[in-house]
Write a structure and sequence with these properties.
The chain has 76 residues and is an alpha+beta fold. Helix content is 37%, strand content 11%. The protein contains one helix and two strands.
């Protein structure tokens, strides 16, 4: 019984790893980036240490209340 549970959990973990890697590869090809929230400036929507996904958008589609991330001149 324990061998069956261990094998099932192993396949589950492997499946989650494959799905996660696929997600990262697909999103990075579309220009999306993953970033950690480093300061409290985005509280209460995003907490320090949280992980966010940043995707490029057309500036003309932004509305009041949209959450944005930007790089200043000369930064990456």
């Amino acid at each position: 019984m324990i061998k069956k549970i261990t094998a099932w959990l192993g396949w589950l973990v492997l499946g989650l790893v494959i799905i996660s890697l696929s997600f990262v590869l697909v999103t990075s090809r579309k220009g999306w980036q993953f970033a950690a929230v480093l300061s409290g400036s985005m509280e209460p929507g995003f907490h320090v240490g949280g992980l966010v996904i940043i995707k490029p958008v057309d500036v003309n589609t932004l509305k009041v209340g949209d959450v944005i991330s930007f790089h200043g001149a000369g930064s990456q």
